[in-house]
Write a structure and sequence with these properties.
Strand 6 and strand 7 form a beta hairpin. The protein is 45% helix and 17% strand. It has three domains: 53 residues, Arc Repressor Mutant, subunit A (Orthogonal Bundle); 168 residues, P-loop containing nucleotide triphosphate hydrolases (Rossmann fold), CATH 3.40.50.300; 92 residues.
């Protein structure tokens, strides 16, 4: 009885469920019933509240492959659904090119939620996210909202992509917006985030070039942190590539070999490699093969030649290693 009431309410404390179900019973029974559903994954406990997720652990494996063009190998979509209901700022951490931003974008598309992506590594400054005065065609000056201001007004999801590359001014403004009040001070007043606004951020591991450690004040704002990794097996990565590309049967064998090579270089135990290919290279090399390029040449342009910027010795070493994997 309490579970059915929770499905109706979406989220509630044990006391709220007890009162909503009327006379009779015992609040101990509420906790016992809710805990039994927590084990199945249909209910999630967050603080003193129970949240109905609608996702059962038993059929989760089937669900992670049911998102059309997006292959959810990390099973992020069910997690994002839970965190979105709670509206707790969420941080996705992991190596470059493992699908962090893609997962958030897919989640927004699947549920038709307004989505704003703020690419922190693209030279974004404070005025880009807050706004600035802009001269119009007729010569008068008018204020134009920035990315963060607009997204807070419209609600939905705002994703700060590669947050560890953000400018100091962007970090300060984000810290302001993520305060419990969810407000942003502008030239002419204060903007308060629309109810339901959900901030998300992605960041690469600190060993990635161009990243820096987040200030602890910002890190504490993102109370949920999720580690995202590359596919755990060759089969998973091939399925992921096939979800992005339409690979004809005639090219499947070469594409499988190419993905195997990309994974091999990525997972190489050689310490001197200054760069390790991501899923982007897996998709790119298969795209070239599907387009008619020979396997070895496709690997040269997507995996090998990038190392020439660190000198011929490293490039030649990778070249030989690729040959050993084909």
């Amino acid at each position: 009885m309490y579970f059915e009431k929770l499905k109706e309410l979406g989220e509630a404390t044990a006391s709220e469920l007890f009162r909503a179900c009327g006379e009779g019973g015992d609040i101990v029974e509420v906790y016992a019933e809710m805990e039994s559903y927590v084990k199945t994954g249909l209910v999630m406990k967050m603080g003193n509240k129970f949240l109905y997720t609608g996702k059962s652990v038993e059929n989760e494996e089937e669900q992670v492959r049911s998102y059309g063009e997006y292959y959810d190998y990390n099973k992020l979509i069910p997690m994002l659904e839970r965190y979105y209901k709670l509206k707790i700022p969420t941080l996705l951490i992991g190596p470059h090119g493992c699908g962090k931003t893609l997962a958030v974008t897919a989640f927004a598309r699947i549920h038709n939620i307004p989505f704003t992506n703020i690419p922190c590594s693209a030279g974004i400054r404070e005025h880009h996210i807050v706004g600035k005065y802009v001269e119009q065609a007729d010569g008068h000056i008018e204020w134009e909202d920035g990315l963060l201001t607009r997204s807070m007004k419209q609600g939905g999801i705002t994703c700060f992509d590669e947050l560890t590359t953000a400018d100091d001014g962007v970090i300060l403004r984000l810290d302001e917006a993520l305060d419990a009040r969810r407000e942003l001070t502008l030239h002419n007043g204060v903007v308060k985030a629309k109810e339901g606004w959900w901030p998300v951020a992605t960041l690469n591991s600190l060993d990635h070039i161009g990243t820096r450690q987040l200030p602890t004040a910002i890190l504490s704002r993102f109370a949920i942190r999720v580690y995202v990794d590359y596919p755990s097996s060759l089969e998973e990565e091939i399925l992921l590539v096939e979800s992005v590309l339409d690979i004809p049967p005639a090219h499947k064998a070469d594409c499988a070999k190419a993905v195997k090579v990309v994974r091999g270089v990525r997972k190489s135990k050689t310490e001197y490699l200054p760069y390790r290919p991501s899923i982007r290279e897996s998709v790119a090399v298969c795209s070239l093969i599907v387009g008619g390029m020979e396997l070895r040449q496709a690997l040269k342009y997507t995996v090998i030649d990038v190392y020439s910027q660190w000198g011929n010795e490293i490039k030649d070493g990778v070249d030989e290693y690729v040959d050993s994997l084909i």
